[in-house]
Amino acid sequence: MTNEGEFNPSALGTKAHWDAVYSRELQSFQEYGDEGDVWFGEGSITRIVQWLNAQKVPQTSSILDIGTGNGMLLVELAKHGYCNLTGIDYCRDAVELAKGICEKGGVSAHFQVTDFLENFHPSEPFDVCLDKGTYDAVSLDPTGAAEKRQLYVKSLYQALKPEGLFLITSCNWTRVELLSQFGDGFDYKDELPTPKFSFGGKSGHSVTALVLQRKICLNPQ
User: How many of the other CB atoms lie within 10 Å of CB of 67?
Assistant: First the structure.
């Protein structure tokens, strides 16, 4: 783990912020049926589903959505035939919202209120883990972001089967930075296409979406 590219602490990295967000979104769903926003937009979900389909990842694969929020990623996966879906979030109202949206859509998925960094202990590791913004939020935690990122990588390694796949979408980190931070236990496998922007004669990506594969064992220190 490197210490380069540290971000200024932000409320976006706190549980209190997300508790407040999902309390409002749950109330809005219960009162008006509003399912809330899709983090990074619907295109981010489409890219993940298309990649899994193109790689012929079995629809029976166990899939974990880390920081599931309103669960819309799992809803879309279920619509495409994936049937072994789990979503976790440390916000209770997020999990209640995700359950309600899945029930409304006739989608089957398992949800759990838990902190991925501290107390997530699955009975079996997963074939695929997904992250769409959660690692970004961890990186903004005012109470020790660097340490929290290390805990994240450790928890991820334990949550994935050997050679399991990790699909991460980030607006904070570049490809090079993510590979540096996850490199000890993970190999680079692919990069998903994301929209480009141009400014001042330069072009780049506002979002990075990578596929990493868990190594069979950690490199000896």
Answer: 22
Q: Which amino acid, residue 211? A: V
Give the tokens for residue 193.
């296409």
Buried b (16+ CB within 10 A) or exposed e, 149-162: beebbebbbebbbe
Domains of the chain, start order: 11-195+202-214 (3.40.50.150)
DSSP states of 180-191: HHHTTTEEEEEE
**61 near 89, Cβ under 8 Å?**
no
* pLDDT digits 0-9 by tens, 52-61: 999 999 999 9
pLDDT tens for 62-119 read: 999 999 999 999 999 999 999 999 999 999 999 999 999 999 999 999 999 999 999 8
Q: Which two tokens stand for residue 54?
A: 């193109």
Give dist(CA 95, CA 110) in Å, integer. 10
Amino acid letter for position 106? G
Amino acid identity of residue 86, one-letter, is T
Whole-Å CA distances, 41 to 133, 180, 208 = 11, 26, 13
CB 83 within 8 A of CB 60: yes
Count Cα neighbours of 188 within 13 Å in the Cβ-side half-sphere: 13
